[in-house]
């Protein structure tokens, strides 16, 4: 042997065929895992944590499932990553993208086994993806100019997204919630302004949207419970005492009265600080940190509402929606911008009291209050609603809309098939394989619903040979139906992202011919 | 094992739910259902007035005897995810309605049993799930139609429903005492401005060992489970009290910054002691100047609330002192006394004081409590003093009282009553069964199963009461078929009677939320096909 030892102990190296096999198998295993959650009749998974508390999550969201998995296989990690990116970029289609990538690799494996070079497969996939994208582009609908129809489109998209989630029974209610919330944003994709509050109790139908902002905190004792035309000062400052932050600082005195004096001085300092805050002309003071009894009483005396211990998220959002700044020093009242809102009052949701800010400066802001039987339901409802909000806000920016229910996949498959027939050479095999992978998505949706997928897909393909066809799978009746009539739509942006990132991921994994696993770092302290 | 799926004739409208799934997924679903049913079976025997209690010995060696479903499940510490969901379910019912926590779990268990046989018939889980949802909506409609409206002024009806809830508990023999007490407690905190909202936090329950449950009373005022600090011989009873709630301490000063007093010779020591005395005396003089004669002092972690020295001076000034009041109780206290907390001696002013006719320390058994009665301009709060011969009984009495309070609160929120004793369930079962016959296909099949599952409640009631469940349930079904929609099981007489006449009633909200929550939970369990272990 020329090289005796190239790697460290325990580092492993897999080459050529074996490496490719390992990545194919890993990626397909991941795809198969989430496959069953796809579509309106997809099943849920229970995620049982091995950590403390052994908490249990029930979810249907691909990104959530994949995020929390223990994964060792490098190729599988790539799929988890694309699902994460899909979640960040467009918010929905996190399962679809993994399933499509998995199917592409499954097809590629067959081709490679038939002695077609991976590079040929990749170039074929590239051509096919380009062609599929163009096919979708030709068929998009854009109702941007017609406000009424555009809103109807948004409703349809929201309902399609929600129909595969826990909210499916009340999807109209939630679709309306989501669309209303996003429409308030007036075109911005800043979902920060939409706050979601979860309160157990009641049923999902009792969820509602509220214009304004709700803070899950209590008001101070003896302070006004209702303020009109509030001027809000949002702060992050210590309201116990301004301690000297030097370690070991201490005072030495020689009598008890001096101690009393120092205590008095500390109180006086606090009082000064409160006076400064009051000098801002505020009548509602929200602090991120605790407000001790003493300043609380001072505020109460001045008739100012003081809210303590609002969390980071809370104050940042409050500052955002009321148009104020977050203060930590109070020396320049002139240059500081206070937040404004029309009314602050205490409201009760379920068993809890919350503080409600209505008529806030930033009209876009709103709060969605979710109600549900248990925390499992609420958490899952929040994830579902988040998906819907993402998709809708993306659609508001890019208003191109497609039909749903497997229609886009079939359209793409048909175009790609035609491309394969026109293309000479080995590439055409890869292009054909791409079309088969695309069809796997409607097949999975049908399979999950317990339908006869082979029968349905063949019917669907036949339908799609007609010009201007709108056929897709109607899961509820278990047959092929017109998607336009059923009102099932999807956002073009989501589909495009699914197509492109799945292709890219598949390409990346295909290119691999060697996996080097570094030796795990040793833990010395472990016996 | 799973029988082969029934082949259906293919037509455009027929649903082809020939459900084929792989073995593992089927196994997981089955395991979930079995685990969840095991939980339901564990609490089943505690349902109803003749239900049995459970003794739970917790990990810390504490023993709890209870009949309350939510408490039993909470302490069981189950690990299996599906079983955990049933525990959550019971908790949700506790939050929503406060009562019926056993019922909801028993219904869920019965539904799961039916689902298992539906799955064995090869029906797709989502189809079952959708059908269950439909059935539960219909069930709520049926229940609402059965309900009788109730007025808040109708104290009798409220007491009846509270005693129905109490009858199934350990403290059932005291239901004549506790039921009116619960009703009065809730009604006294209802704000006329917002008649639909009741905050049960305005009802404070104070437990004190000694006496029997009979001695439980409703106190129009405040009760502290604390002694008056009278080590220095202060007063223990004050009439025409002026009460101050203070958040500062009557003890030598302490700064937030670290401090030390340097003493170089013993004359200085003397001076320091004198100064300390003067300092405290100064504070007490200020307090006395406002006419205050009762002090409630908030607990402080930083320093002693009172010292022996200050207690001595306070005693001389004839001021009654209660120390170590928790910070979260302050809001309740100030609301009740209609006063403001005082955080600094400089702000000690007369207008911040609360007034009451009498503040006294009362000996109860071996302990003592402080009672404040005859409060002027009292806020809308109330206190219930629960007594009992041992801790187990007191705890159970508290839980039962909480349930009864919740029942009354439900009635305030949703002013409808419904018959108890299994009557609504059997009526639901009958009407849904009839409805199922009108429907087609799988849906009809599933809804019929739903209807059958609901019979578990009267069945279990009868079984727990030692009656013949089959005879009772069939007779009940018969009576309902003849139009007696209020016929139910009279557990005391051991026969079927018109349950409304027997004064066994419960709030509508308890029944409806039990049905909807149980269905929601079962649907969730059905949709699970895999359990993944994650970080």
From TrEMBL, chain A:
<keyword id="KW-0067">ATP-binding</keyword>
<dbReference type="GO" id="GO:0140662">
    <property type="term" value="F:ATP-dependent protein folding chaperone"/>
</dbReference>
<keyword id="KW-0963">Cytoplasm</keyword>
<dbReference type="InterPro" id="IPR002194">
    <property type="entry name" value="Chaperonin_TCP-1_CS"/>
</dbReference>
<dbReference type="InterPro" id="IPR053374">
    <property type="entry name" value="TCP-1_chaperonin"/>
</dbReference>
<dbReference type="InterPro" id="IPR027410">
    <property type="entry name" value="TCP-1-like_intermed_sf"/>
</dbReference>
<dbReference type="InterPro" id="IPR027413">
    <property type="entry name" value="GROEL-like_equatorial_sf"/>
</dbReference>
<dbReference type="InterPro" id="IPR012716">
    <property type="entry name" value="Chap_CCT_beta"/>
</dbReference>
<dbReference type="InterPro" id="IPR017998">
    <property type="entry name" value="Chaperone_TCP-1"/>
</dbReference>
<comment type="function">
    <text>Molecular chaperone; assists the folding of proteins upon ATP hydrolysis. Known to play a role, in vitro, in the folding of actin and tubulin.</text>
</comment>
<keyword id="KW-0143">Chaperone</keyword>
<protein>
    <recommendedName>
        <fullName>CCT-beta</fullName>
    </recommendedName>
</protein>
<dbReference type="Pfam" id="PF00118">
    <property type="entry name" value="Cpn60_TCP1"/>
</dbReference>
<dbReference type="GO" id="GO:0005832">
    <property type="term" value="C:chaperonin-containing T-complex"/>
</dbReference>
<comment type="similarity">
    <text>Belongs to the TCP-1 chaperonin family.</text>
</comment>
<dbReference type="GO" id="GO:0016887">
    <property type="term" value="F:ATP hydrolysis activity"/>
</dbReference>
<keyword id="KW-0547">Nucleotide-binding</keyword>
<dbReference type="GO" id="GO:0051082">
    <property type="term" value="F:unfolded protein binding"/>
</dbReference>
<dbReference type="GO" id="GO:0005524">
    <property type="term" value="F:ATP binding"/>
</dbReference>
<dbReference type="InterPro" id="IPR027409">
    <property type="entry name" value="GroEL-like_apical_dom_sf"/>
</dbReference>
<dbReference type="InterPro" id="IPR002423">
    <property type="entry name" value="Cpn60/GroEL/TCP-1"/>
</dbReference>
<dbReference type="GO" id="GO:0006457">
    <property type="term" value="P:protein folding"/>
</dbReference>
From TrEMBL, chain B:
<dbReference type="GO" id="GO:0051082">
    <property type="term" value="F:unfolded protein binding"/>
</dbReference>
<comment type="function">
    <text>Molecular chaperone; assists the folding of proteins upon ATP hydrolysis. Known to play a role, in vitro, in the folding of actin and tubulin.</text>
</comment>
<comment type="similarity">
    <text>Belongs to the TCP-1 chaperonin family.</text>
</comment>
<dbReference type="GO" id="GO:0006457">
    <property type="term" value="P:protein folding"/>
</dbReference>
<dbReference type="GO" id="GO:0140662">
    <property type="term" value="F:ATP-dependent protein folding chaperone"/>
</dbReference>
<feature type="region of interest" description="Disordered">
    <location>
        <begin position="1"/>
        <end position="22"/>
    </location>
</feature>
<keyword id="KW-0963">Cytoplasm</keyword>
<dbReference type="InterPro" id="IPR027410">
    <property type="entry name" value="TCP-1-like_intermed_sf"/>
</dbReference>
<dbReference type="InterPro" id="IPR002194">
    <property type="entry name" value="Chaperonin_TCP-1_CS"/>
</dbReference>
<keyword id="KW-0547">Nucleotide-binding</keyword>
<dbReference type="InterPro" id="IPR027413">
    <property type="entry name" value="GROEL-like_equatorial_sf"/>
</dbReference>
<dbReference type="GO" id="GO:0005832">
    <property type="term" value="C:chaperonin-containing T-complex"/>
</dbReference>
<keyword id="KW-0067">ATP-binding</keyword>
<dbReference type="InterPro" id="IPR053374">
    <property type="entry name" value="TCP-1_chaperonin"/>
</dbReference>
<dbReference type="GO" id="GO:0005524">
    <property type="term" value="F:ATP binding"/>
</dbReference>
<dbReference type="InterPro" id="IPR054827">
    <property type="entry name" value="thermosome_alpha"/>
</dbReference>
<keyword id="KW-0143">Chaperone</keyword>
<protein>
    <recommendedName>
        <fullName>T-complex protein 1 subunit delta</fullName>
    </recommendedName>
</protein>
<dbReference type="Pfam" id="PF00118">
    <property type="entry name" value="Cpn60_TCP1"/>
</dbReference>
<dbReference type="GO" id="GO:0016887">
    <property type="term" value="F:ATP hydrolysis activity"/>
</dbReference>
<dbReference type="InterPro" id="IPR017998">
    <property type="entry name" value="Chaperone_TCP-1"/>
</dbReference>
<feature type="compositionally biased region" description="Polar residues">
    <location>
        <begin position="1"/>
        <end position="17"/>
    </location>
</feature>
């Amino acid at each position: 042997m020329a090289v005796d030892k190239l790697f460290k102990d325990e580092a492993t190296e897999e080459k050529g065929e074996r490496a490719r096999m390992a990545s194919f198998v890993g990626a397909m295993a991941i795809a198969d895992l989430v496959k069953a959650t796809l579509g309106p009749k997809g099943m849920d998974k229970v995620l049982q944590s091995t950590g403390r508390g052994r908490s249990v999550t029930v979810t249907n969201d691909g990104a959530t499932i994949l995020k929390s998995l223990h994964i060792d296989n490098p190729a599988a990690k790539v799929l988890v990553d694309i699902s994460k990116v899909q979640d960040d970029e467009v918010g929905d289609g996190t399962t679809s993208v993994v399933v499509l990538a998995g199917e592409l690799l499954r097809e590629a494996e067959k081709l490679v086994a038939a002695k077609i070079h991976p590079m040929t497969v990749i170039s074929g996939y590239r051509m096919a993806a380009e062609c599929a994208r163009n096919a979708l582009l030709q068929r998009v609908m854009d109702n941007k100019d017609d406000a009424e129809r555009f809103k109807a489109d948004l409703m349809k998209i929201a309902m399609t997204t929600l129909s595969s989630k826990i909210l499916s029974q009340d999807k109209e209610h939630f679709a309306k919630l989501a669309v209303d919330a996003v429409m308030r944003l007036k075109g911005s994709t800043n979902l920060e302004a939409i706050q979601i509050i979860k309160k157990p109790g009641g049923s999902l139908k009792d969820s509602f949207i509220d214009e304004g902002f709700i803070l899950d905190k209590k008001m101070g004792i003896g302070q006004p419970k209702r303020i009109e035309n509030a001027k809000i000062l949002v702060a992050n400052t210590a309201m116990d005492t301004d301690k000297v932050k030097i370690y070991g600082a201490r005072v030495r005195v020689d009598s008890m009265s001096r101690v009393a004096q120092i205590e008095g001085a500390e109180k006086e300092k606090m009082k000064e600080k409160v006076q400064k805050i009051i000098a801002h002309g505020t009548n509602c003071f929200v602090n991120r940190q605790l407000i001790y009894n003493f300043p609380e009483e001072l505020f109460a005396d001045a008739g100012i509402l003081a809210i303590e211990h609002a969390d980071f998220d809370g104050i940042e959002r409050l500052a955002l929606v009321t148009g104020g700044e977050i203060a930590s020093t109070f020396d320049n009242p002139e240059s500081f911008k206070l937040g404004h809102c029309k009314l602050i009052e205490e409201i009760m949701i379920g068993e809890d009291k919350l503080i409600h800010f209505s008529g806030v400066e930033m009209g876009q802001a709103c709060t969605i209050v979710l109600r549900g039987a248990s925390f499992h339901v609420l958490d899952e409802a929040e994830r579902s609603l988040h998906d819907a909000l993402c998709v809708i806000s993306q659609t508001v920016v890019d208003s191109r809309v497609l039909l749903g229910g497997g229609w886009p996949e079939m359209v793409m498959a048909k175009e790609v098939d035609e491309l394969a027939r026109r293309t000479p050479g080995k590439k055409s095999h890869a292009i054909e394989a791409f079309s088969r992978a695309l069809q796997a998505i409607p097949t999975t949706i049908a399979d999950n619903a317990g339908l006869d997928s082979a029968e349905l897909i063949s019917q669907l393909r036949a339908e799609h040979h007609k010009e201007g066809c709108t056929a897709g799978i109607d899961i509820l009746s278990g047959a092929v139906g017109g998607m336009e009539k059923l009102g099932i739509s999807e956002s073009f942006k989501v589909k495009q992202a699914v197509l492109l990132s799945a292709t890219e991921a598949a390409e990346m994994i295909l290119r691999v011919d060697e996996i080097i696993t570094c030796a795990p770092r040793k833990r010395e302290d472990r016996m | 094992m799973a029988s082969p799926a029934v082949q259906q004739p293919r037509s455009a409208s027929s649903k082809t739910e020939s459900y084929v799934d792989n073995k593992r997924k089927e196994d997981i679903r089955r395991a979930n259902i079995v685990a969840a049913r095991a939980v339901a079976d564990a609490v089943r025997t505690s349902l109803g007035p003749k239900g049995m209690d459970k003794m739970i010995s917790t990990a810390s060696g504490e023993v709890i005897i209870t009949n309350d479903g939510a408490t039993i499940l909470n302490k069981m510490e189950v690990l299996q995810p599906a079983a955990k969901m049933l525990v959550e379910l019971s908790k949700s019912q506790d939050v929503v309605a406060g009562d019926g926590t056993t019922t909801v779990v028993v219904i869920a268990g019965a539904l799961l049993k039916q689902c298992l046989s539906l799955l064995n018939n090869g029906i797709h889980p989502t189809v079952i799930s959708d059908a269950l949802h439909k059935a539960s909506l219909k069930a709520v409609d049926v229940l609402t139609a059965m309900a009788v409206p109730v007025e808040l002024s109708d104290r009798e009806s409220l007491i009846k429903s509270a005693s129905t809830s109490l009858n199934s508990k350990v403290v059932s023999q005291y239901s004549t005492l506790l039921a009116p007490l619960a009703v009065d407690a809730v009604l006294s905190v209802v704000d006329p401005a917002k008649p639909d909202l009741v905050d049960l936090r305005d009802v404070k329950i104070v437990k004190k060992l000694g006496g029997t449950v009979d001695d439980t009373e409703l106190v129009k005022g405040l009760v502290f489970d604390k002694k008056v600090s009278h080590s220095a011989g202060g007063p223990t009873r004050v009439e025409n009290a002026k009460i101050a709630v203070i958040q500062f301490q009557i003890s030598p000063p302490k700064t937030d910054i670290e401090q030390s007093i340097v003493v170089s010779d013993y004359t200085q020591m003397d001076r320091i002691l004198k100064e300390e005395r003067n300092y405290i005396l100064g504070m007490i003089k200020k307090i006395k100047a406002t006419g205050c004669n009762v002090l409630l002092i908030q607990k402080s972690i930083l320093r002693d609330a009172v010292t022996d020295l200050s207690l001595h001076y306070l005693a001389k000034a004839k001021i009654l002192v209660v120390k170590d009041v928790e910070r979260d109780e302050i809001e309740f206290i100030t609301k009740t006394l209609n006063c403001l907390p005082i955080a600094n001696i400089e702000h000690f002013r007369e207008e911040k004081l609360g007034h009451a006719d009498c503040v006294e320390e009362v000996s109860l058994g071996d302990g003592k409590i402080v009672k404040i009665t005859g409060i002027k301009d009292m806020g809308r709060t109330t206190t219930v003093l629960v007594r009992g011969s041992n801790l187990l009984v007191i705890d159970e009495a508290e839980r039962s009282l909480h349930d009864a309070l919740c029942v009354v609160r439900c009635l305030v929120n949703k002013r409808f009553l419904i018959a108890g004793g299994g009557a609504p369930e059997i009526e639901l079962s009958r009407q849904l069964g009839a409805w199922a016959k009108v429907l087609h296909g799988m849906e009809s099949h599933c809804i019929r199963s739903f209807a059958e599952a609901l019979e578990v409640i009267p069945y279990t009631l009868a079984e727990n009461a030692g009656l013949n469940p089959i005879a009772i349930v069939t007779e009940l079904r018969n009576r309902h078929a003849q139009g007696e929609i209020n016929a139910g099981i009279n557990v005391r007489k051991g026969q079927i009677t018109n349950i409304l006449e027997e004064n066994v009633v419960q709030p509508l909200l308890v029944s409806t939320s039990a049905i909807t929550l149980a269905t929601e939970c079962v649907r969730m369990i059905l949709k699970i096909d895999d359990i993944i272990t994650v970080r």
